[in-house]
Amino acid sequence: MELSVFNSKGEDTGRKVTLPESVFGVEPNEHAMYLDVKQYLANQRQGTHKSKERAEVAGSTKKIKRQKGTGGARAGSMKSPVFIGGGRVFGPRPRNYSFKLNKKLKALARLSALSTLAKDERLVLVDNLNIDSPKTKSFAAVLAGLKVGTRKTLVVTKEANANVVLSSRNLAKVKVSTPGALTTYDLLNADKVVCLEESLSVFEEIYATK
Fold first, then answer.
1. Which of 170, 177, 137, 184 is nearest to 155 (CA)?
2. For the chain, which domains are there?
3. 3-state secondary structure string, 128-158?
């Protein structure tokens, strides 16, 4: 598959780049992507939810009424879940939601996501971003030139670029990452992925050998 290369102003440079088939041409495995996204979202959960059960609420354990003769159900404590202020039955407790996935499965999920991006024409190649100093206005102009608009955009640089990161952090729907730090969730969640041309070799080096 070939993609046109644009400059930072959104102009077509007239060059085309052939995407490596080992990264952008694999058959997408939807179940692998599902599991990787599920693990990512599970790892974001704090798991600190907690409600007080019968043994933990404050209150007297004195029997509130006699056992028989009242015409109602027997009751032994105000801590009972049937009363207002009583403990909750089988309430949530702190827990860890994370789970393990094999490295090969996670690599397959990322390759599947990258191939899906290429197939859906959501990948934009740029030769250079030309961000010399941290300035949101300049970075927004680059995105406007590439016609990504206000859509969720993932920008992939070859390596960590402080100017790009600082210029984009005030843009709510823009995320900057590197090939090695990408997650399947990031790739599938983006409407457009703006990728530097020099990043393609890093993709091939990292993911195709997994």
1. 177
2. 2-45+101-207 (3.40.1370.10), 49-96 (no CATH)
3. CCCCCCCCHHHHHHHHHHCCCCCCCEEEECC
Sort 115 into a burial class: Cβ within 10 Å, 0-12 / 13-18 / 19+: buried
In the numeric block, which tokens belong to residue 62?
């004195």
Name the nearest CA neighbour of 208 among 102, 100, 122, 115.
115
User: Cα angle vertex 152, ends 150, 154, to 5°?
Assistant: 120
Per-position DSSP letters for 178-195, written without gaps between them? -GGG--HHHHHH-SEEEE
* Structure confidence by residue, pLDDT tens digits, 71-103: 999 998 999 999 999 999 999 999 999 999 999
Q: Tokens for 15, please give them.
A: 């060059």
Q: Average pLDDT, stretch 156-183?
A: 90
CB-CB contact of 126 with 196 (8 Å): yes
Place of tokens 């202020």: 85
